[in-house]
Amino acid sequence: MPNNATAGSSMVPTGRLIPTLRADGYTQMALDRLLLEQCQTSGPVLRFYQWEGPWLSLGRHQQHWPHHWDELVRNKTIAMVRRPSGGRAVLHAGGLTYALIWPDAPHRRKQAYRDACQWLIDGFSHLGLTLQFGDESASVDDPNCFARSTAADLVDQNGIKRIGSAQRWQHGCLLQHGEIMLDPPQELWRAIFAESAPPPAPASIPRDGLDQHLSNALRTLWHQVDWSTHELTNQEREALASLESSSSSTVF
User: Whose C-alpha in 18, 84, 156, 176 is 20 to 30 A from the C-alpha of 239?
Assistant: First the structure.
């Protein structure tokens, strides 16, 4: 539970919700980098987003991936971008992505994951889907983030990974990325990972309006924060354009 009010002060911490954005991978990753840079001078920030076309995001330190991924990029089957957060590769297609930027998050990583995910557990519980944390050790050999479920991830009652998460810490601020698996494309998944895709999320999970439902779950759990919705400022748009330019110059 965040509390960025000063000691002895009655000041209520403020939080920001950014309207859901649909854009290419370079724009999305550049915006998350920008929000993380601004974190020290702001309260917690939550945004959801969707990707234009299928994208594969690579973890910040991921140096190796199957050679055929490069061919899929060359023939424009997918596009690839590097995330500012860690972890392995994530396919963004048929799902919903979130970014939570949190100043003064707990420094113990496991506790930070749990505190940063409880609103998701609550939100999906209200929709009839019970989620819990995974318990497998992460594998450095498998490039697919959704191949295993660690303590950073949320799985359903059948052990199916429904939300994969990755973190980045910078100057005491936490960026947590999460991919909510809804309707993974079967053929594309097999073409990329050479295995069957996870089954779709239950029909009880709304594909439209899920972002608003989960935002409300965060508001309810982090009720001591004064949340409000704000579009990107002109200054942020200018900074974003500069970051996009540098991000899109990366060649895979």
Answer: 176
By DSSP bridging, strand 55-58 and strand 79-82 are parallel
d(CA 223, CA 175): 20
The three-state secondary structure class of 46 is strand
Which tokens hold the place of 23? Answer: 């854009």
Catalytic residue among 39, 117, 145, 173: 145
Domains of the chain with bracketed CATH = 14-227 (3.30.930.10)
> 45-51 and 14-23: which strand pairing?
parallel
117: annotated active-site residue: no
Edge-to-edge strands of the sheet including 55-58?
79-82, 55-58, 90-92
Angle in degrees, CA 194, 200, 140, rounded to 5? 40
Place of tokens 């050479």: 194
The CA distance from 223 to 55, in Å, is 34
- Say how many CA atoms lie within 13 Å of 169 toward its Cβ: 9
pLDDT in tens, 112-146: 888 999 999 999 999 999 999 987 544 445 565 55
Name the pTM for this structure: 0.88
Residue 216 pLDDT more than 70? yes
Specify the residue for token string 């001078």: 41
Q: Would you give the distance in Å from CA 85 to the centre of its chain?
A: 9
Residue 128, sorted as left (phi over 0), alpha (psi -120 to 50) or beta, turns out to be left
Query: Tokens for 223?
Result: 């009720």
